[in-house]
C-alpha cells in the first residue's frame, strides 16, 4: 500500500515537496487553485541576489514532479478526519483519502491600493514590484515611459500597523535593490532612489548586491519612509519623506514610483486551513509546532506546512523548507502507518 | 597656557551620560508609546508646522534619549497638535498625547 499525500498549492514549495515525496515512494496528489502552477515565481523575471532567471528555476522545479498527479483549477471543498487519515473532497469531484496533508499555500501580495497615500491605481506612474517584474518579462507597461527619475518605496504594507501588518516581509529589500539595479540597466540615464527604514540584506551575496547598487549603479539610498505622494500638473509625482540621516524633511519629483508590496497570509490558504482545523497566529500565518525544532509540523497530527504559509521566506528558504517537510512527512508516515513500510523499502532498494 | 589660536566651544558630541533615565521612565509611564518609535521620519515628513519651523517628533524622541532635552523641546515647540503625524505613524503611536507628555515632563524647568 502506498500512502497518499495531498499537497495544497503548486508554487515552489508544493512543487519541491511533491518531487521529494514522490521519490520517497509516496503517492502524491498536488492541487492548485489557479489555472497554472508555479505561484508567484511564474510571474517573476529574475531572482536576487545573482539575477538568475525565474522561468529557468521554475522549469527545473516542474521537471522534478514527473509522475505526480497534479490538478490545476482545483480547490478543497471539504475535509474530514477519517481515523488517522483525512477524507478530502476536491472541487473537481475527486475524493482523496490522504494519510498526510501538506499545506504549501504560500502568500498573497499586499494590495498596494490599500495604502491610499501612495496613489496606486490613482496616479499614472505608480506601480508595484510585481508590475515591474511583468514589465521586465514582456517589455511594456504604459505607466513606464522612459523614466529618468525613479523611486522605490520599501515596506509597503509591511512594518505598518495602519496597514494591519506589523511584521517585515523579508524579501522586498533585496527585491528593491535588485530592481533598482535593473532599472539603471534598462534606463542608463535615470537616477534611482530607494526610500527605506532599515535595509534588510542578510543573505549570502546580498551585501555585494547592495554595494554594487551604490558603486556600479549610483542608486541613492535615503533613510526615511515615504509619507505622501501627490501628482504634479505635468503628471510627474511629488514624493515627501524625511531624510532621517540629514534630519530634514525632503521632497523630490519622480517620473516613476515603484511600491515594494509585501507578503500577506494567503486568503485561500486560510480558508483551507480552517477546513482542516489549522491554527493561525496573530500575524495571520499558520502556527507551527515549534518554530525552531518542529517548523514544518502543524498542531494537527498528519498536517504539515512548508514555505510562506508559515511566514515570509526567500525562495531558497522555501525550497529548503519543502524538502524538510518531505522528510518530516516520511518520518510521520513510517511511524503512523508501519504496514506501508515494506513497500517503501522495496521502492528505495530499487534506486 | 599655550595659545592655540582658537577658543574652546562646547562639544557637539552626544553625551549619553547626560541621559536622565528617571525622567524618561516618568515619560514612558505617562505615554508608553514613546518606546515604540522606529525613527521612520513619517511624522516629520507630513508635519504641518514643519513648513514654518523645523518640527520633528522623531528628532524630539531621539534627542530626549540623547540627553539633549532642550533640543527635543525645540523640535516640538511649533506643534499645532493637528494630528497628521498620528494618521501616518506606522507604529500607531499616539503622537499628540506623546507630544503633550514630553512637554509635561521636560518642559517644567523653563
Ligand atoms: S524586507 Fe525591507 S522592504 Fe521588505 S518589509 Fe522588510 S524592511 Fe521593509
Ligand atoms: S500634531 Fe504637531 S508634530 Fe504632528 S503633524 Fe501636527 S503639527 Fe506636526
Ligand atoms: S512616524 Fe511614528 S515611528 Fe515614525 S518616526 Fe514618527 S513617531 Fe517614530
Task: Report how far apart the termini of chain A are.
Answer: 19 Å
Associated small molecules: iron/sulfur cluster
Order of helices and strands of chain A: EHEEEHEEEEEEEHEHEHEEEEEEHEHH
Main pleated-sheet profile of chain A: 5 strands, parallel
Quick structural summary:
Chain A is an alpha/beta fold. In chain A, 28% of the residues lie in helices and 26% in strands.
Explain the overall architecture.
The complex is a heterodimer of chains A (351) and B (110). The radius of gyration of chain A is 22 Å and the shape is elongated. Chain A has helices spanning 12-23, 54-63, 129-138, 172-186, 206-215, 267-276, 315-336, 341-349, and strands at 4-8, 27-31, 46-47, 52-53, 69-71, 76-82, 85-90, 95-98, 100-103, 107-109, 126-128, 149-156, 191-196, 220-223, 228-231, 237-243, 248-254, 256-261, 263-265, 303-305. The relative contact order of chain A is 0.17. Chain A starts with a strand and ends with a helix. Chain A folds into two domains: 4-106 and 266-348, FAD/NAD(P)-binding domain, CATH 3.50.50; 112-262, 3-Layer(bba) Sandwich (FAD/NAD(P)-binding domain), CATH 3.50.50. Helix content of chain A is 28%, strand content 26%. With 110 residues, chain B is an all-alpha fold. At the A-B interface, strand 16 and strand 17 of A face helix 2 of B.
Characteristics:
heterodimer, A: 351 residues, alpha/beta, FAD/NAD(P)-binding domain, 2 domains, 5-stranded parallel beta sheet, B: 110 residues, mainly alpha, 45% helix, globular, binds iron/sulfur cluster
Element layout with pairings:
The complex is a heterodimer of chains A (351) and B (110).
Chain A: E1 4-8, H1 12-23, E2 27-31, E3 46-47, E4 52-53, H2 54-63, E5 69-71, E6 76-82, E7 85-90, E8 95-98, E9 100-103, E10 107-109, E11 126-128, H3 129-138, E12 149-156, H4 172-186, E13 191-196, H5 206-215, E14 220-223, E15 228-231, E16 237-243, E17 248-254, E18 256-261, E19 263-265, H6 267-276, E20 303-305, H7 315-336, H8 341-349
Parallel strand pairs in A: 1-2, 1-9, 2-5, 9-20, 11-18, 12-13, 12-18, 13-14
Antiparallel strand pairs in A: 3-4, 6-7, 7-8, 10-19, 15-16, 16-17
Helix pairs in contact in A: 1-7, 4-5
Chain B: H1 21-30, H2 42-46, H3 57-65, H4 69-76, H5 84-88, H6 95-106
Helix pairs in contact in B: 1-6, 3-4, 4-6
The structure holds iron/sulfur cluster (3 copies).
Residues 37-43, 57-58, 85, 88-91, 93, 95 of chain B line the site of one iron/sulfur cluster (SF4).
Amino acid at each position: 500500500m502506498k500512502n497518499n499525500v495531498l499537497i495544497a498549492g503548486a508554487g515552489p514549495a508544493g512543487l519541491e515537496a511533491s518531487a521529494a515525496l514522490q521519490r520517497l515512494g509516496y503517492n502524491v496528489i498536488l492541487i492548485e487553485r489557479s489555472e497554472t502552477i508555479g505561484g508567484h515565481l511564474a510571474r517573476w523575471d529574475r531572482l536576487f541576489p545573482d539575477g538568475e532567471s525565474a522561468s529557468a528555476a521554475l522549469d527545473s522545479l516542474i521537471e522534478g514532479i514527473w509522475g505526480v498527479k497534479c490538478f490545476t483549477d482545483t480547490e478543497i471543498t471539504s475535509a474530514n478526519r477519517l481515523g488517522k487519515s483525512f477524507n478530502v473532497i476536491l472541487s473537481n469531484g475527486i475524493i482523496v483519502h490522504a494519510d498526510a496533508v501538506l499545506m504549501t499555500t504560500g502568500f498573497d501580495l499586499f494590495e498596494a491600493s490599500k495604502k491610499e497615500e501612495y496613489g496606486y491605481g490613482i496616479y499614472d506612474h505608480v506601480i508595484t514590484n510585481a508590475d515591474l517584474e511583468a514589465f521586465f518579462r514582456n517589455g511594456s507597461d504604459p505607466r513606464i515611459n522612459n523614466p529618468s527619475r525613479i523611486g522605490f518605496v520599501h515596506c509597503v504594507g509591511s512594518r505598518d500597523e495602519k496597514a494591519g501588518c506589523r511584521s517585515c516581509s523579508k524579501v522586498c529589500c533585496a527585491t528593491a535593490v535588485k530592481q533598482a539595479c535593473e532599472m539603471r540597466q534598462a534606463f542608463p540615464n535615470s537616477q534611482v532612489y530607494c526610500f527605506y527604514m532599515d535595509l534588510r540584506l542578510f543573505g549570502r551575496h546580498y551585501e555585494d548586491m547592495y554595494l554594487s547598487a551604490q558603486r556600479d549603479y549610483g542608486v541613492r539610498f535615503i533613510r526615511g519612509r515615504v509619507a505622501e505622494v501627490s501628482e504634479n500638473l505635468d503628471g510627474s509625482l511629488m514624493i515627501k519623506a524625511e531624510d532621517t540621516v540629514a534630519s530634514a524633511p525632503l521632497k523630490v519629483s519622480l517620473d516613476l514610483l515603484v511600491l515594494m508590496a509585501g507578503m500577506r497570509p494567503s486568503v485561500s490558504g486560510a480558508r483551507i486551513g480552517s477546513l482542516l482545523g489549522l491554527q493561525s497566529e496573530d500575524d495571520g500565518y499558520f502556527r507551527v509546532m515549534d518554530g525552531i525544532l518542529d517548523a514544518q509540523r502543524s498542531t494537527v497530527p498528519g498536517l504539515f506546512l512548508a514555505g510562506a504559509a508559515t511566514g515570509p521566506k526567500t525562495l531558497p528558504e522555501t525550497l529548503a523548507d519543502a524538502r524538510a517537510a518531505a522528510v518530516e512527512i516520511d518520518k510521520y508516515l513510517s511511524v503512523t502507518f508501519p504496514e506501508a513500510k515494506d513497500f517503501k523499502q522495496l521502492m528505495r532498494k530499487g534506486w | 597656557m599655550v595659545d592655540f589660536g582658537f577658543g574652546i566651544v562646547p562639544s557637539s558630541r552626544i553625551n549619553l551620560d547626560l541621559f536622565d533615565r528617571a525622567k524618561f521612565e516618568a515619560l514612558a509611564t505617562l505615554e508608553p508609546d514613546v518606546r515604540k518609535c522606529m525613527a521612520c521620519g513619517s511624522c516629520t515628513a507630513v508635519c504641518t508646522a514643519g513648513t514654518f519651523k523645523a518640527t520633528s517628533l522623531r528628532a524630539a524622541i531621539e534627542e530626549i534619549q540623547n540627553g539633549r532635552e532642550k533640543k527635543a523641546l525645540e523640535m516640538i515647540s511649533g506643534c499645532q497638535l493637528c494630528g497628521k503625524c498620528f494618521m501616518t505613524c506606522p507604529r500607531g503611536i499616539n503622537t499628540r498625547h506623546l507630544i503633550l507628555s514630553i512637554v509635561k515632563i521636560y518642559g517644567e524647568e523653563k
